[in-house]
Structure formats: C-alpha cells, structure tokens
Amino acid sequence: PQAKPTPKPQAKPTPPPTPKPQAKLTPPPAPTPIPTTTTQKVTNTTTATTTTTTTTKTETPTTTTTTTARPADDKFVPRSNTAKPTSRPKTTLEQAMENKGPKPLGTSASSGRATITIASGGGFTGATTSFQIRPDGKVIKTNSLKPDATKIVKTLSSNELNEVYNQLDQLELQKVKFSHPGNMTYSIKVESDAYRNNVRWGSADHQVPANIQQYYDAVMKIIGK
Q: How far apart are the C-alpha atoms of 52 and 164, rounded to whole Å?
C-alpha cells in the first residue's frame, strides 16, 4: 500500500492592524452668560418710578376738590331767576311794544299793548260809530256826527282785556290785507309798534273772512253793544 502524503500546514492569515483611537475633539467653549445684575437694576428702577407716579395721581384730586369747593353758606342766585314771574304769557303785541320806538296813539308807557278800534257806519245818515279800546281797559265811544259826545262808556276788567288781546293774536291781523267798504262799512283798526292795519268790509261782492267777523262780534259783545 502507498503511503498517504502528509498535508502541509496552512499559514494562518495575518489579522488586520488594530486602528489607532482618534483624538477626541475639544468642544467650543460655552458662551459666557450675561450677568443679570443690570436687568435687576432696570427692573427695580422702573418699579420705583411707577409707584411714585401712582401716589402722585391719587393725592392730586383730593387737593383740587378741597381748594375749589364752594362754602355751603354762599348763596348764588342765577341772573335768569331774578326776573319777576308774570301772571300770563306775553302776547306777540306785548313783546313788540317793549321794544324801543315811537309809541302808537292811545297807548300808555306801562301797558305795552296796542290800541284797537271797532267801528261801523254809513247808510242813510253816513254817521260812523267807533269804540276805541285802550291798553288801560277804557272803552271810548265816538260818533262822527257828534264829536263833542265822545265819552268813556266802559272799563274792561283784566280778564276781558286779556281775552280781547289773546283773540287778536290768534287772528294774526297783521297778515290780512282786506279793504272792501260798502253801503254799510265795518272795520277793525289796530295801532301798535309791531304793525298798523285797518281791515274794512261791507261790499256784497267781497265776503269778509269768517274769523274777522267772529272777532268783531266777540269784541262788541264784551263791550256790551
């Protein structure tokens, strides 16, 4: 029998070289923190300022109120309250009469009202009878054919005189332009500082406004004629 060849021992592989450890990188230095001392000072300063301002505002109203307070016993009467109250509202004519200007015929300085003349006349005799109402309430009767017979026939009471003037204001005679006499003519004449007007009617062709006729009849009734 042949002898078996002896196997040659194989060479052991050479292990790879062990890597050398790398040097550790040095981290950058951490930023230096900003000291808080400055921030604390600012905060303290602001707080102190706010406290001072609040205290000043609280004290100011108290000082002002004490200085401007009016004494309790100081009686102050407004100028508008010194006017004497009137018994009734003034009419338009009364207000106008208080203004400066020439006084109308038949008015007194203290009355401040207009003079109203109610008249009628014509017909067969042509005579005109008039009743003049003056601001003092006196009613004076005149006849054109008997000038010497002029006389005071009545003195109106305060209520009657007020009614005459109040109804005249409602009539607004200053806006009426009416002059149409007839065989028998009727008229209402007003003389004041505000206006002067003489309304006449009687013509069959021109009908007088109803409110004027009603005022004429109402005044004649107050006079008693």
A: 76
Say which residue, 74 or 158, is predicted with more confidence.
Answer: 158
Helix or strand holding residue 165 (H, E): helix 158-171
Neighbours of 132 (CB within 10 A): 20
Mean pLDDT score across all residues of the chain: 73
* CA-closest candidate to residue 215, choices 175, 183, 188: 188
For 154: left if phi > 0, alpha if psi spans -120 to 50, otherwise beta; the answer is beta
Burial degree of 88 (CB within 10 A; 0-12, 13-18, 19+)? exposed
Query: Cβ(137)–Cβ(155) under 8 Å?
Result: yes
DSSP string, 118-138: EEEEETTT--EEEEEEPTTSE
Query: Which of 132, 215, 135 has its CA nearest to residue 170?
Result: 215
DSSP 79: G
Nearest Cα residue to 219 out of 135, 176, 153, 160: 160
User: Is the model's pLDDT at 162 over the cut of 90?
Assistant: yes
pTM score above 0.70: no
Read off the pLDDT band of 93 (50, 70, 90): low
